[in-house]
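Researcher: Before we compare anything, I want clean individual predictions. No alignment, no superposition, just each chain on its own. First chain goes here; please echo the sequence and then give the structure tokens.
Model: Echoing the first chain and its structure:
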Amino acid sequence: MAAVATHADWVRRAGELVPEGRAFVDGAFVAAAGGATFPSVSPRDGRVLAEVAACTPADVDRAVAAARAAFEDGRWRRRPPAERKAVMLRWAELLRARADELALLESLEVGKPITDAVTVDVAGAAGCVQWYGEAIDKLYGEVGPVREGALAVVTREPLGVVGAIVPWNYPLIIAAWKVAPAIATGNSVVLKPAEQSSLSALLLARTAVEAGLPPGVLNVVPGLGPVAGEALARHPGVDALAFTGSGETGAHLLSCSAASNAKPVELELGGKSAHVVLADCPDLDAAAEAVAWGIFYNAGQTCNAGSRLVVERPIAAELVERVVAIARGIVPGDPLDPATRLGALVSAEHLATVDGWVRRAESDGAVVACGGAPVEVVPGGAYYPPTVLTGVTNDQPVARHEVFGPVLAVIEADDPAHALAIANDSPYGLAGAVWTADLATAHWMARELRVGTVWVNTFDATDVSLPFGGFGASGHGRDKSLHALHACTRPKTTWIEHGRPAVAAAGDPGRTP
């Protein structure tokens, strides 16, 4: 249905939409304990989409209690793996069946182009749930190489209650990255979505219960970060916390953990990814296309966006000319128009922040090659065009801080070694790319880049089977792949004596000191 829907169809559906804004606790929608709400405002046109429950510590207490009860009585974790797998596969299919509604919520809440919301975000979330569902009955323990007369086995045990705090830029996909592996391994989850993007998370939980997930296994507590997010991070009943967002918030969550029960905190933070193009680039047109979409996709609101173009001087002018030509052809449009490739920024406040970074870069000596000022697309909306800044040096603030908008900083390098030094000269280490025709250079650059993901002669190629995360200020957590299961479980060793007395003799080398 989404594939044939027109602009007018989506606008009509948006007008008819009545989103659910209450919290989701123990399998049901409930108002916040104090009855308070906050508005969900669309960056498309500034209209209020719904009043969302402003959850408080009391609501977090209720959600954590529901999650704990579900975990302790084993209604989910003790079910046979094949049954849990079947539920998650049904859940994935329900997400696909409700793709239009989920995509519309995402597009309206965060300004994402409706075509991307359907084909990337909803499809990616459903695929993630399916992948982890299929992994449930393919996880095995270990047998330790111990002495005769004993058997030592290592099993992966669920942690209990996992808290997840997710951002607004990819609400469904990142929620699925956190929730799916935690639930697949038998945990219960309390999800706190960003206040800008609560509505799709609430529908995500509803579809899970419709698919057969028992009440209490997945709970959603929308609310403001300093209130609901803080309460979740400090809650002594939460056994682990997974977070994607800013470095400042990530550091604060670590302090919340230290002040409560020392729960592990998995952090996936920001990035300032370098897109390195060397003079022997095998295809300058392909590189220009990848550079442009590596920063302008999702209006630059992507943690691993290639926001720094590090290019060797001999080809810099030619490459920038091609990138600018592509950028000028990417015109911001109504997110509800299927033809739109660049939608709105998430809010009017964020629009002002992005424009402020551009103004600051100009004052530091950068030149605006294209874009560089807000535009009006839909009255009341928050739109910014693709912007290319030349003449940037890597010590300038625009090259070191995460702008989180469609702003590309171009930095020229003398040679490959200089380009590598620039790329690594960043507090962040999430991702990076290199374009070169030389195989040895590609291997050298990939090995030396201090980032979690390296692309060679491409950008942003991905798969749910591969881990995603970074180094340094980009955090230490890993989303996707089987590696994500490690954060949701802990190894348990069970030692069984079967051929000798249960109590080992003193001095036995197998005895624990």
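Researcher: Okay. Second chain, same rules.
Model: Second chain and its structure:
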Amino acid sequence: MTSLLKKLFEGASIARKCMLVFALGAFGALAMPPLGFWPILFAVFPMWWIALHSCVTTRQVFGVTWCFYSGYFTVGLYWIAAALFVDIANNWWVLPFALLGLPALMSFYPAAAVVLWHRMAWQGPPRVLLLVVLLALSEALRGICFTGFPWNLWGYAWMDMMSLMQSVAWWGIYGLTLLTLLTVFLPILWLQETSTRSARALVGVVLLILLVANVWGAGRLTVHYAPVDHQVRVRVVQPNIPQEAKWDAEQRLQHEQTLWQLTTKPTSHAPHVILWPETAITLVGTEDVRLFDQKIVTQLPEHALLAAGILDVGWNAAAAQPLFYNRISFYDAKASRLAFYDKAHLVPFGEYLPYQEYWPVRPVAFQAGRFSAGPGPQTLIMGDLPPVSPLICYEVLFPGGVADRAHRPAWLLNVTNDAWYGRTSGPYQHLAIARVRSIEEGLPLVRAANTGVSAVIDPLGRIVDMLPLGDQGVIDAALPPSLPPTFFARHGNATFYWMCGIVLGVAVMWQRRQRRRIPHV
């Protein structure tokens, strides 16, 4: 089979190779939620490896890698284009970028890493380890540069194996991505012609790490943590308002009425805090604020707090222009605003445009202007409510960036509006990412989404209760207790970089011992 694949790639033109590896990358996207078909990675990566080794020049190596990852990102991120059709008359100009431009840009990270790998011209098993480390580092770089977009990291392929996912409490999702890449390259380490007894021992070590991580994770999942005294009750409101109708002025009062009807729905256990999704309402003027305050006083249950996603407006006196905020505001039953949080990690082209004054168009999600960014992760303390770290929409993507390390919260709150993406894979991938943040931090997470998927998630990433995509209703649940800070919560992504250093150190020593190089062409 291996020889047949070699002949397939070695006899192909560079154009045909690129088409084949584009298809391989597209199949690799099937490993991501909601499908989670991770076994396909054990076919996709070895075949891509064979395609790489059929390349002669650096340009060919770059092209084969870029096409492989372009296929992966095109299929894995297709749902972004769905958001543009909500208002295609204004957003048509972004469609080529969403369908082709973003996958192309994301693919430059691994392509540059593989070019470096190719030019170093290592040989044998160290060559495999070097590629794994550089690919893992390129994934981390993708999560940092140009505001970062760490979506569909390879480690998310294991979401259906919650025992293995528990390992992110130690090394985070980047660490699991490194382990994933090591794992899918094991067949190459075992079967390549230069494989040695040491290489096969390394295969055994990686499999042992996987086994230990799985056993430890399975044991962790069997532990049932007793609820704390006077456990806090939460109500999550999911109004299921289609994005096409969300900002229709004629339907605005109806939408607000839906929110309040769900908020005041009878329950046997009175909620301590009620959660509305991202931009549930708009407060653009004094009259809007006054009417909203009146509704709170008359509708909000006594002793309850309301955490509402709000499109809020301020004023910049110096520039004589309005300031817009994507905000979560916390109110008590007397309509007093106890605290608020402004989204800090804004979406490029969605919520702001770089150098916007020079663009003839406006951000996709906000045609009125651009949002102002908040200061970043904050722990808010309000009365008897456990300290909370609010996160708006895709701020939950960033490992190590969802909580204030100096003031650890007791839970995470993620409000979002995934109505933009309809019934695509995007909302399910977003939910999976939020679950991993819970495991990493050892904190429960409550997710309020406009159209779904809303959920209450325990600190082990398990879904306690949820509302499916496209349903209208509420979740009434007890807030799960938090765990002591995990290793990742204490050290963040530093563990991942130490792991990369160890694997690279092994590769360097191994390469020196071999004392031979592959000549670079």
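Researcher: What stands out in the second chain?
Model: The longest helix spans residues 95-120. Additionally, The chain has a mean pLDDT of 90.
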